[in-house]
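Researcher: I'm preparing a figure for a lab meeting and need a structural model of a single chain. I don't have an experimental structure, so a prediction will have to do for now. The sequence is pasted below. Please return the structure as tokens so I can convert it later.
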Amino acid sequence: MTKNLWKFWGLVIAIAITIIACHSLQLSAPTATTIKLSGWGGSPVEQKLLKQVLQDFEAQNPTIKVKYEVISDQYMDVIKTRLVGEAAPDVFYLDALEAPFLMSQNVLEPLDAYITPEFNLADFEPTLLNSFKYQNQIYGLPKDYSTLALFYNQTAFAAAGLSNPPTTWDELRNYSQQLTGKLNRYGFGVSPELARQAYKITAFGGQLVDQNGNAAFASAAALQGLQLVVDQYQKDRTSAQKSDVGTNSGSEMFGQSKVAMVIEGNWAIPYLQETFPQLKFATAEIPKINSKKGTMVFTVAYVMNKQSQHKAAAWELIAYLTGKAGMQKWTGTGFALPTRKSVAQNLGYDQDPLRSPLVAGINYAIPWQVGKYPAAIVNNFDNQFVSALLGQQPLQQAMQRAQKAANQQIKTME
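Model: Understood. Here is the structure written out token by token.
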């Protein structure tokens, strides 16, 4: 065999060894599973925080990659369309308001089989977890929440000689009269949406919906609570809507000192601190109505698409994001309140001067849910209640119209 032939065969063998080695490496290196997570957009700071938490998850789970997608417009319409077309993400946000309908449609994966004792389901606030239960199965794990609390301007209170926040709604109306026209144009800022009025409806024994899922907010008991809002706006003239003072939200009219008191959620705290750093404000639990404590609770869960091709990986992501470590990272900056009791204690939110009234509210809050067809109920209420607030029609007539229209729409959807 010639020298050149030896060189040729040597080269062939070397190439073959290289190919075999590379092939072996490819076989031994595990391929990463990519799962898709969808949610709606928050503030830039919030989005940055979520991306950091997802990077931490990927670092701890090197075989799973997360593709995060923000759906900025018509979120639920997009999700529903994709679920029908079998193109929905593996994991996605689901607001408690929209949960009853989706849970009833057999498009979400029940999570009970994935939850182990170590996950410690009992650590979640029961009110929040129950919002994502349907027919004795769990379809979502709540990622965070907020109740509502009273925000009050401490400078305005001092100018009016008021040292403590009101503890009853009668006191709130009295305070509002004293505060109107002092440092602020109005004493109280009102948000007429059902999401902010529901606890007033239930204060006298009223209901939002009946056991059949129909609107029930026009009862005498419900009207008794709503009348408080109308009287303060029309008779006292000490409360204002955001449109009355040229602002876009309750938080903004409070921050701009157009009103001395407003009822808002946890989201208002970082907004006010960043946007209005000179504002001196405090929070308190919402004043009692009819001797009863009341507030709303808003929550969002991570849910799994039943058609997901990567359910094991999807569960790992949900378990991390709603587990103790992931939740502490997500809620540690104060943008949201943790749904796990142990995380709330670790972060000290139950002792936080601004957040403790919000945390206390979870014990008696009404979950923001109104059955399978929320749009029909919410839209009709909001339209007619604003009309009554403005004095365009009597409250009872407005609510009866809203209830009738809502139930007619529900009938066509069932």
